[in-house]
Design a protein that fits this description.
About 5% of the residues lie in helices and about 50% in strands. It is an all-beta fold and about 425 residues long. A hairpin with a 4-residue loop joins strand 16 and strand 17. About 25% of the residues are buried.
Length: about 425
């Protein structure tokens, strides 16, 4: 019998795995992060066979390395889970990432600590949010909260410095910025209580004019002169004269920046009683004037415009009824004037106030048979104005002075025609003066 040698094979033994040993340098389970900033998550496999690693963000696989860097694009709370796995099992660790929104705000004026603007202009400043949500804004001016929006608009009424502060904040961070708005005074601009360039007063009568700085009045120095002689340094001046004649009242103002403003008034001072302005009663009219040379002629009426140089309650009106061509006329009774004690022989000029309305009339005064045009043509300014007439010789009590107020520019009568808005056939007169 033959004996056979048989070799026995041992069954294969399964691979033995060692459970991964992992060290986590990040011990805190909560990780703070900011949108847009990179965060590194770390895990170190100390031992273990054939270990595979994985990092999950909210269960979405993001990396297969032991450590990885991740940038969150949105704010919020995220689960960050690490997993180390081999045949022996799995080792896990979970972190909670609290991602805050990023905060970045800049002002539209840049880094300026002071900005300048002209008085009455405005300034607009915007807080521009470059990143960050739920940003709150607070603007204060001189310590007072004036706006809680991103946009600040200011109207700069006063010429001074304004202290402006901005505070912006959200849950992440805040920003504080202070700057000064330097408001520059506007150029010197004045207003005057009287704008008429020519004024007439009686001897001894006071006239008051006030100069007011609308803008640019800081450090303003006032100076009033009459024919070059200083008469006042206040904002208002009150002046009168015991002498008759024509005087130049001048105002000059200089502010702290050296800017100047000036204005002149020509003031005619008449002897008391030589200006005929008492037309408040028809009796006075009858004694001084021939009334009915026109129809209806001279009448006493209410002042049609008391806002200008003539503030009298009443004045004279010369009106011509009908539609025929006419100059309208009435005579001044020089003989009666002389009887009243007024020495008209000292004078060779007449000045009076006239209101033409919308008429384009050129009033003349007839003296010794000649019609004289005014030395200053009508302005047709829509209100009262002064006309002055000069004659070749002084008046006498025997002469007739005839007023012809409804003439054309060439001295001829106004044409025939119906009464219209620009041909009312009426002229208002007041304050007849004798001038030399």
């Amino acid at each position: 019998m033959t004996l056979l040698a048989v070799a026995c094979t041992q069954p294969a033994q399964p691979v033995q795995y060692e459970l991964p040993q992992v060290r986590f340098p990040m011990e805190n389970a909560v990780v703070d992060a900011v949108v847009g900033e990179a965060v590194t998550f770390e895990a170190e496999v100390v031992s273990g066979d054939k270990v595979s690693c994985a990092w999950y963000i909210d269960e979405v696989l993001e990396a297969s390395s032991q450590s990885f860097t991740y940038t969150f694009s949105d704010p919020g709370s995220f689960q960050v889970r690490f997993e180390a796995h081999n045949g022996a099992g799995t080792v896990e660790k979970t972190y909670t990432a609290i991602v805050a929104d990023k905060f970045s705000v800049r002002l539209s004026i840049g880094d300026s600590l002071e900005v300048s603007r002209l008085q009455l202009n405005g300034i607009n400043v915007a807080a521009i949010v470059e990143s960050g949500a739920s940003v709150e804004h607070t603007w204060t001016v001189d310590g007072e909260v004036v706006c809680e929006e991103a946009f600040l608009g200011m109207k700069l009424l006063e010429a001074r410095k304004y202290a402006v502060h901005y505070h912006g904040r959200n849950s992440v961070d805040s920003l504080d910025r202070s700057f000064t708005v330097n408001v520059l005074e506007r150029p010197l601009e004045m207003s005057y209580s009287i704008y008429d360039e020519s004024l007439t007063i009686k001897r001894g009568q006071e006239i008051t004019i006030t100069a007011t700085a609308i803008y640019g009045g800081t450090g303003l120095q006032n100076k009033w002169t009459v024919d070059g002689t200083e008469v006042g340094t206040d904002a208002s001046v009150t002046w009168s004269s015991s002498e008759t004649g024509r005087f130049i009242l001048k105002y000059t103002g200089v502010n702290g920046k050296g800017e100047t403003a000036s204005r002149e008034w020509a003031i005619s001072v008449m002897s008391a009683g030589y200006i005929l302005d008492d037309f408040e009663g028809i009796t006075a009219l009858n004694s001084w004037w021939t009334l009915a040379q026109n129809s209806p002629g001279i009448t006493l009426v209410d002042n049609p415009d008391k806002s200008g140089i003539n503030t009298s309650d009443h004045c004279m009106m010369d009106s011509v009824a009908g539609t025929g061509g006419t100059s309208g006329y009435f005579d001044l009774k020089t003989a009666v004037i002389a009887e009243k004690g007024i020495d008209i022989t000292k004078y060779n000029r007449i000045r009076f106030k006239v209101y033409l309305g919308k008429n384009k009339y050129y009033p003349r005064v007839q003296f010794n048979g000649t019609k004289y045009a005014p030395v200053n043509p009508p302005k047709f300014n829509g209100g009262w104005e002064e006309l002055e007439y000069a004659f070749p010789s002084n008046f006498t009590a025997s002469q007739t002075i005839t007023f012809r107020p409804l003439l054309k520019e060439d001295g001829t009568n106004i044409a025939s025609g119906a009464v219209t808005e620009t041909n009312t056939r009426s002229v208002y007169l007041d304050d007849i003066e004798f001038v030399n």
